[in-house]
Amino acid sequence: MDDVFDKYFQHQAFSYDKTFGGWGKAPKFPRPVVFTGLFHYYYRYHKTKPDESKHALDMCLFTLVKMFKGGIRDHIGGGFHRYSTDKKWHIPHFEKMLYDNAQLPISYLTAYQISKQPIFENATRDILHYISTKMIAPGGGFYSAEDADSLLKHGSKEHAEGAFYVWEKSELDKVLGDRSPIFCYHYAVQENGNAESDPHSEFTGKNILMEIHDISESAKKFGLSQNDAESQLAECRKVLYEIREKRPRPFLDDKIITAWNGLMISAFVRASVILKDREYAKIALNAANFIKKELYKDKKIN
Does residue 79 sit in the same domain as residue 169? Predict the structure, then answer.
């Protein structure tokens, strides 16, 4: 078993690129199983191999932060898109899958348990808020996915990848007013769009939100306290959420898949225990009851 762990760790360390915030070359997928393996490596060897195990932990924490701040996360509505098409976790394939948003909370919860850093609790709650507001069927089960494409506007037949999620700077300036400068600074918004990697010219003039500054940097830039900066950014996100809700939503895949629901139930249960939030337990129980009622048959085998 030790040999397995050693080879696993060496492979991940070799393929890790801290410059761009994670493993491998583009495209870059969230890999919760890798996080789990490296977290176990840290737990198993943190006393006998302190340097190697610390490096394994640091890789996980660093990458999870970069993913949370990157464009692969939906900064307005919560949850994660399927994968990043570039090396910086910035330009996503905008589809949202239940199984990603079920497994990633486990990674973020583990990171929170080890590090106690609030960002990992925030990431967990961000994902679960998205699921609980957009992906629960009336009976309590979880839907499967939201598509990457959506209509450009109501009544139009034209659609595009990420149309629901991207922003022009002129639109942000108009709706955010005097709060637009700090928002655009914090989320890397550019006048001509911020998609550095756009081989098919799908995002010309568009911005995919990505946190490139810490809140302390944004606060200092605009002469604000950290609390005031956080408050202004939160108000901006609320305004943009309400505006975005008026856009045509991506297609909802309303299949309810038992295995994926099991993953999501597990995430809500674990979050309920670690974050001491009973609402998460209620959501998990409702989903479990739905599966028992609608997707389970008790047949005797002769």
Answer: no
